[in-house]
C-alpha cells in the first residue's frame, strides 16, 4: 500500500500539489507509467533515472527499505519525482535520520526527474518548500549526481532558503562524441599510440579471418550467461566482484536487461575470435546515446587489447546507426581516457535539516574536520 502525505503548495501563482508516498517498491510501480511519461518530457532523460531502473535497484539491494517518493503535480500531471530511501545512519559520528538516493556502485548515476518547461523549474521550488517542512529526516544524501541536473537545482533552492548544504566531487564521467562523418572515426582513440596498436591488431586478425562482431537487442539467456561467465573468468572473479559471484547483483542485471528490452533500449555487443569470446558489453542504446554499464574482456588475449578492440567496433556501429555519443559509463579510468579528453562532473550532494543532529553533523564534517586537517598540515 502507498501512504501519501499531501500538501497543496502555491508557487509563482500556480497551484501545485507536493506529496510523499511511503511504502516499498510497489510505490515506484504505482507511479511508473506517469514517471515514464515525465522522463519523455524531462530536461535530461537517461535510463538510470527511469522507474524500472530504480525498482530493480530496490528489489536487489534494499528490498526491506522504506521508500519515500516525492512528487509534485499540477492538475493531475506529474512535474517532478524524486525516489528516496529512509534509514537510520551515522554521519561523522552523529546518529541521524537519513533520506538517501537508491544508488550504489551499479547504478551509474542518479537524478530526480523534472519537466523541461518553466513549470518544471517551479516544481523544484515546490519540492524543496515541501521537503524542508517534512518531518522524519535530518540529512538528505544523494550520490553520483550529474552537474546541472534536477537535484543540483533542488540543492541550490535549499541553500537559498538558508539550509546547510554541501557538495563533494565524484570522479568525472568520460564520454566520446561519435563523429557524424565515418572517416573521422580513424581519429579515434585520441591516444595515438593505442590508435596505431589497434590498426596493427586489425591487420594481424584479418589474416586469421575469424573475427566476428555482433549486436543483439533481445535478451538471450545463453548470450547473457556467456557475458557473466566471461566477466567472472578474470580478476573480477578472483576478487569476487563479478556479477555471477552475488545472487542479488545477478538479479539486478537480469532485471534491468529484461526491462531495457521491454522498453527498447537493450543493446548487448560481443566480439569473438574463431568462436571464442574476446569481449562483450552489457549496454543500453537510449535516445541517441550508447551506455555501457558493464563490460567484460578475455584476459587470455592481452596481445589483442580486446577491451579496446570492442570499443572501436562499437563506435563504428554507433556511427552507422546515428548514435551521437558513447557515454563510457563510470569514472575516468586510465583506459577510458585513451579514447577521449571529454568528461562530465558528478557530485555527492548533502542537505542538512535545521536541528541539532543536522547542524552538528554538518559542522563536524565540513567545518571542524577540515580545520583540524589544515592545522595538522601546518
Commentary on this structure:
With 378 residues, this protein is α+β, with helices and mostly antiparallel strands. The protein has two domains: 3-171 and 345-377, Aminopeptidase (3-Layer(aba) Sandwich), CATH 3.40.630; 174-343, Aminopeptidase. Helix content is 37%, strand content 31%. The chain has ten helices and 16 strands. The chain has helices spanning 25-40, 51-61, 118-131, 150-160, 192-208, 221-232, 235-238, 247-262, 306-320, 356-377, and strands spanning 3-11, 14-23, 66-74, 77-91, 94-100, 113-114, 139-146, 164-169, 173-177, 211-216, 266-273, 276-286, 289-297, 325-327, 343-344, 346-352. The strands form two sheets. Strands 1, 2, 3, 4, 5, 6, 7, 8 and 16 form a nine-stranded mixed beta sheet that branches. Helix 9 (306-320) links the parallel strand 13 and strand 14 (325-327). The radius of gyration is 23 Å and the shape is globular. It starts with a strand and ends with a helix. The mean pLDDT is 94.
CATH class of the largest domain reads Alpha Beta
Q: How would you characterize the largest beta sheet? A: 9 strands, mixed
Please give the count of helices: 10
The level of helicity is 25-40%
Calculate the terminal CA-CA distance, rounded to whole Å. Answer: 57 Å
Q: Please state the structural category.
A: alpha+beta
Per DSSP E runs of 2 or more residues, the count of β-strands stands at 16
By CATH, the topology of the largest domain is Aminopeptidase
Would you tell me the overall average pLDDT?
Answer: 94
Level-2 CATH architecture of the largest domain: 3-Layer(aba) Sandwich
Number of self-contained structural domains: 2
Strand content: 25-35%
Cα Rg: 23 Å
Helix-strand string: EEHHEEEEHEHEEHEHHHEEEHEEEH
Shape: globular
Poorly predicted runs are none
